Amino acid sequence: MRLADLAEQIDLPETDVVTGAWDAAVRRTRRRRAVVVAASAAVVLVVVGVSALSLRGEPERPQPAVPEPTPTVTESPQGIDHSNTQRLVSPELWEGLSSLEPGATTDLSEDPMDEGVFATVDPDDGAVPIVLGSDGRWRRVDVPGLVLIDDGGGYTSPVVRPTAFSADGTHLALPQPDALVVVDLTDGSHRTYPMPDDFLSYAVWADDSHVLVSSEGATTSTLVDLDSGDTVAADLPPDTVFADGDSLSWGRSDQVLDWGSRPDVPTLANNAGGLVEYPPLLKDGLAIGDMTVGSRTVGSEDPPLGNGVVAVDTSSGDVLAYLHVGPGPGLIALLGWDGALPVVGFVDRTGTHLSMAIAVWDYRAGNLRPIAETSGMAVAWRRSL
């Protein structure tokens, strides 16, 4: 389907996950709200802590063992002080984790895969993706001419982002300074969609044939039709996710769940904690964000107290749970889902471990189930082997 048709039609192919949302997403005037999240906000946060967790020894291939989850304790809302809060995310979380590191690699063009389950970048070249296939073998994505992501202001970053994989794991979307590159993992081919001077930093799959791209700090995006190559401007920010039959924008400038085609939902939570804006995770009425506790207002004398992972009911805006991870180990990557539970990457910023621990967060029981450790800070995750 061509993008020109999307503004006029409601019915989309069955593979589209945004049924009924395109017209509203492209045409509507966004109702953006400034957010000042005070440390004294009256929100019941489940702040959790745990003793050291570990896994059994490393298997022959990246298929880590699963330990029994460890229950956590909760604290009252006064625990927002954090100085006496037990943390679930501590350097001990890394102890005993199996390593998820690229071993011997082959070139994707010569050795394609059925689907990818995990992606990172070459440790010596952040412009070269390395993908783990469902067969347990690593491929080097040998697309010529790939460069680091450039924000247009002099800063660069690796080409793999948490939103790189298509839903079925057969394609990888890579933003470039002047183009979107989509790699077919099943045959090693790729297609380039030129976008001169856009300095793309974000590529988010809307469905199996459309990708939303945007630049650092932008408030709007461009929707790319992968079949025709057509593009259309969309009044959606980079922090937009497509799931549950709609689009949801929830980021730094919102204290609201901003739906594409249904009424917005106010919430005391925010998705403002990341170094850059990323979409929340969204599934079956649950939104997972990277939340800042404390003020982010420009010029504010009150610095953020820290950040953590927050679970929000998308129908009511209620905060279901909050997992404090900063200001110690405070860098979070929202990666995906393991069934009905979110998968999150945690970077130990204390310097004890210069790596990312990937774990499943059971927000209902209040525990983490570690999956693996990876030295890559730029990763995309679909599922475990």
Question: Which features does this protein show?
Answer:
26 strands, Methylamine Dehydrogenase, Chain H, 3% helix, four-stranded antiparallel β-sheet, 385 residues, mainly beta
Parts with pLDDT < 50 across at least 5 consecutive residues: 1-86, 295-299
Average pLDDT over all residues: 76
Largest sheet: 5 strands, mixed
Structural class designation: mainly beta
Number of strands: 26
How are strands sequenced across the largest beta sheet? 1-4-3-2-26
Quickly name the level 1 CATH class: Mainly Beta
Compute the number of helices.
2
H-E string? HHEEEEEEEEEEEEEEEEEEEEEEEEEE
Output the CATH topology.
Methylamine Dehydrogenase, Chain H
CATH architecture: 7 Propeller
- The radius of gyration over CA amounts to 20 Å
Helix content: under 10%
Principal-axes geometry comes out as globular
Q: What is the number of independent domains?
A: 1
Strand content: 35-45%
Q: What is the distance, rounded to the nearest whole angstrom, between the alpha carbons of the first and last residues?
A: 34 Å
